[in-house]
């Protein structure tokens, strides 16, 4: 069960880091709109990370 929680954490963190890294490689004019998209994507990743942890914890407790 702990393996599932660890995998969720690793995948979520990797996705967040990948998003931020990809956002850093943009042109100057394109960067303004990309900044807002990066903030939104980061918020989605944080929400999904928390939701995934709650779901895995609920699954472990309900066994």
Task: From the structure above, extract its key features.
2 helices, transmembrane helix, 0% strand, single chain, mainly alpha, 63 residues, membrane, Protein-export membrane protein SecG
Radius of gyration: 15 Å
Q: Which oligomeric form is depicted?
A: single chain
Weakly predicted, low-confidence segments = none
Content of β-strand = under 5%
Largest sheet descriptor: none
The total count of helices amounts to 2
Task: Describe the protein in words.
The mean pLDDT is 80. This protein has one domain (2-62). Helix 1 (2-23) packs antiparallel against helix 2. It has helices at residues 2-23, 28-62. The protein is elongated. The longest helix has 35 residues, at 28-62. The chain contains 2 helices and no strands. Keywords: Membrane, Transmembrane, Transmembrane helix.
Concise synopsis of the structure shown:
This protein is an all-alpha fold and 63 residues long. It is built from 2 helices and no strands.
Topology:
Elements: H1 2-23, H2 28-62
Helix pairs in contact: 1-2
């Amino acid at each position: 069960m702990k393996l599932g929680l660890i995998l969720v954490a690793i995948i979520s963190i990797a996705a967040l880091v990948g998003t931020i890294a990809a956002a850093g490689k943009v042109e100057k004019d394109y960067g303004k709109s990309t900044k807002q998209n990066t903030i939104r994507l980061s918020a989605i990743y944080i929400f999904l990370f928390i939701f995934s942890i709650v779901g895995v914890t609920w699954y472990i407790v309900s066994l």
